[in-house]
Amino acid sequence: MKLVYVRNKENGTTYVYESKYYWNPEKRQSRSRRICIGKLDGEGNLIPSPRFSRPLPETIAHQGGAAAARPAKRMYFGGVYLLDQIGRQTGFLDDLRACFPEEYGALFSLICFLILEGQAPLSRLEKWSRTHWHPAERPLTAEEAKRLLRDLHLEAAVRFLSLEEGRRPEAAPLPGLFPSGGVAGPLERAVLGMGFVVLAAMLLLSAVEERMRGNGFFSGWTAQRVFDRLDLIECEMGPDGSPEEGFVSPQEAQLLTELGVCPPEVSETDRPAR
Predict the structure, then answer these.
(1) pLDDT digits (tens, 9 = 90+) for 118-163
(2) What are phi and psi of 270, to 5 degrees?
């Protein structure tokens, strides 16, 4: 159950709703139902509505409303969600996690940044990571990204590319990036690390473009236009940093469905005003 807090600007009362989501198979999108379960008193405690007959769980009936009613943190969600889902379906993320178990979250977040932000410099990474949900689930700085690239295990990078090449038997061979004689210094390692991340981003982007080419719905669309449209989808972050609830339009749900990705269970009815 998801609690939604709505403040009436005229009388200053905050009403508490129980929000439940369900999938409408005919419209091929998520919808939501809301039931008012009460309101908050002056101290932020919940006063159950007499019209709500079902007993409230103890944790809800006595929770401090002041903390619960704090505005939820919203982050952009759709573009990374698409890359995450296609990465799972193609085995890209399985290979990345197997080769980089410790650096997986930050590495995949950096890959998403490169795809979604195009030619943006690393100096914009921290702002992007604060406004978008991404696998690292924490802000990433340009300095951290540079350290990641400098310290990247090149043997693991070679293994990852080999695994990806095995999944693409009909594709052109992947270019060799790493010299057999080893790497001399940290600067060269950083350059090779960035080259690997760019190549990995190109592999994942090509999987998205392949879905687009196989579907006439995307005639006239570019991959960047698809990402720009999906990046309007927002989500509310849970206490553990995971996305709990989002806001998606029928057009955005259709884009995801046509790409072979099940839309997240979110609802257009709750999209905040822009």
Answers:
(1) 878 999 999 999 999 888 888 999 999 999 999 988 889 989 999 9
(2) -105, 15
Task: Answer yes or no: are the C-beta atoms of 126 and 109 closer than 8 Å.
Answer: no
CA distance linking residue 240 with residue 9, whole number of Å: 30
Q: Which residue is it, tokens 């990806």? A: 164
Instruction: With cut-offs at 50, 70 and 90, classify the pLDDT of residue 200.
Output: very high
- Closest by CA to 44, choosing from 73, 72, 21, 67, is 67
Contacts of 151 (CB under 8 A, 6+ apart): 189, 193
CA nearest to 106, candidates 85, 126, 78, 91: 126
> DSSP label at 217?
G
Residue 71: C-alpha distances to residues 12, 65, 68, 88, 152 (Å): 15, 12, 8, 32, 38
3-state secondary structure of 123: helix
What CA dihedral angle connects 218, 220, 223 and 225, to 10 degrees? -110
Q: pTM for this one?
A: 0.69
The string over 74-94, giving b where at least 16 C-beta atoms fall within 10 Å of a residue's C-beta and e elsewhere, is bbbbbbbbbbbbbbeebebbe
Give how far the C-alpha of residue 234 lies from the chain's centroid of Cα atoms, to the nearest Å. 9
